[in-house]
Design a protein that fits this description.
321 residues; alpha+beta; Alpha-Beta Plaits; 4-stranded mixed beta sheet; 14 strands; 37% strand; elongated
């Protein structure tokens, strides 16, 4: 308590409150992460827990797509020839109901050739004239047993169809696969949150939090890489030497996503190409960096009265409260 002395005068009282608030200087250094379209603040004190999981899903059915090109003098002729070729493909599989066929029209265009015209005393003239039509169609063949593709390729080759465009993989349980991945990842996330609370001796209940999650699916058609297997000769040839190089064969191989970057992987063993489903969840706990206001200091002045006697003595006056 602070006392003020004033001779033969009244001292007034006042109450003064002191407070200090920091500005936004602690939040000047910010950046934006494009994680699921969520802007998040980067801070060295934030607690970030990231869980990544993957599962390998075996396909239940497949669709092989073959390309057919057919030419003819008329549409009727082309259609007849294509029907004959497709029926020849279907014949070995008439008793296999799990194999289905679908034709997809791609193009139908006229074809031209050059016709030579001879005139007396003139040079030869070549005129472009229509000679027929060309039709391109794709044949989609659905099958369930992956070993059936060998039989399908053989049947297509018998009909002079050699262009296998692609093979697509399908699984009917993809929705359940996503749910199972998310459930397992969230269980691991809860365990890690509890572990950090115990290690740090903190309670995250009242702290600001943010969660981002997402899926990614990788199909076999996206996982093939090409390479050439050969060794160069080490002969020290002259620069002027004539060298004839052999054309090197290029092939492809299936390269799945490695499981080393994931917290957990279900069905990790891969023998045949599979559909790889990945799930990632990021949990951010923001550190409490906002400066707290300084405690309020209250200053109070009391009232006291004094009198000076003729002898020069100072005496306090009791005037009551």
């Amino acid at each position: 308590m602070k006392k003020s002395i004033l001779f033969l005068s009244l001292i007034t009282s006042s109450t003064v409150l002191f407070g200090q608030v920091s500005g936004n200087i602690n939040y000047l250094q910010q950046t934006h992460l494009n994680e699921s379209n969520i802007d998040v603040r980067i801070s060295t004190n934030d607690i970030i827990i990231n869980i990544k999981g993957m599962t390998n899903v075996k396909a239940e059915s497949y669709v092989a797509i073959f390309s057919i090109t057919q030419t003819g003098e008329s549409l009727e002729e082309i259609q007849r020839l294509i029907d004959e070729r497709i029926n020849q493909i279907k014949k070995p599989f008439e008793l296999k109901k799990e194999i289905e066929f679908y034709t997809d029209m791609i193009s139908f265009v006229p074809c031209y050739e050059f016709e030579e015209t001879k005139k007396a005393f003139n040079k030869k003239t070549y005129n472009e004239v229509p000679k027929g039509f060309e039709m391109k169609i794709n044949v989609h063949i659905k099958y369930k047993n992956p070993n059936s593709l060998t039989e399908i390729v053989a049947a297509c080759s018998a009909s002079e169809i050699y262009d296998l465009i692609r093979v697509d993989y399908f699984a009917s349980n993809m929705e359940q696969v996503r749910k199972d991945l998310a459930t397992k990842a969230q269980l691991i996330l809860k365990e890690k949150i509890k572990m950090r609370q115990d290690l740090l001796g903190m309670d995250f209940t009242s702290m600001k939090k943010q969660l981002a999650e997402g899926y990614r699916v990788n199909y076999p058609i996206e996982s093939y890489k090409s390479y050439q297997a050969y060794s160069n000769s080490s002969l020290n040839l002259k620069k002027s030497a004539a060298v004839t190089q052999t054309e090197k064969s290029t092939t492809q191989f299936y390269q799945p996503i490695f499981d080393k970057e994931f917290d957990f992987v279900t069905n990790p063993e891969i023998v045949e190409p599979v559909i790889q489903v990945m799930y990632e969840i990021t949990f951010r706990i923001y550190a409490d960096e906002t400066p707290k206001p300084a405690p309020v200091v209250e200053t109070k002045t009391t009232k006291e009265y004094f009198i000076v006697t003729h002898e020069g003595d100072v005496k306090a006056l009791n005037v009551g409260k």
